[in-house]
Amino acid sequence: MKTLLSELHFLPSIASFCYFKAADEILLEACENYQKGSYRNRCYIVGANGLQRLSIPLEKGKNNQLLIREVALNFHQDWPRQHWQSIRSAYGNAPFFPYYADELMPIFIDPPALLWDFNLAFLKTIFRLLQWDKPIHTTKEFRTQHEENIYDIRQKVTPKFYPPNGTYQENFTAYPQVFRERHGFMANLSILDLLFCQGPQANLYLSENYSS
Fold first, then answer.
1. Would the pTM count as exceeding 0.70?
2. Rounded (10°) CA dihedral 178, 181, 184, 187
């Protein structure tokens, strides 16, 4: 695989990162409209009480008719601080949390105003933590079909087709998780789960769990 075409998700799932790992470069869909019920403004982690969804509040309005790069975040509540507290509570005892937390926390402390910029800041940071130098490009126009050398996973990695701890559970190899003894292994969470629990071994895991 050379070029991978994907939507830009919030702290993307492990399934998305399996595809990213197999690609030489990433092409992000920047010309679509926002879509509800997707990973664009949600991710999943596992804490003491089990599976937990982190959802980003958006400014009220017809977001489904907005260009994805124009969707604004809603800061009427201090959800960035709450999200970081949830992540710290879930992964504070994970072996690699101390190595990566300081790279991620500033984005929650001082988030940009737009969903696109917020998600992109995390994606670039996680690429750096994985020591990837894969180029990240953006589309210039919306097209339903692209050249054969572009592998299109738009609409493929969704909560419906790749739910956390769901129907694709058997497709992911189990690894040690903070609360595994309490809740069992939960597959396809946010990449944060794999990063904090496996550290540099995350790269090997992503390679071994890729399926086209």
1. yes
2. 20
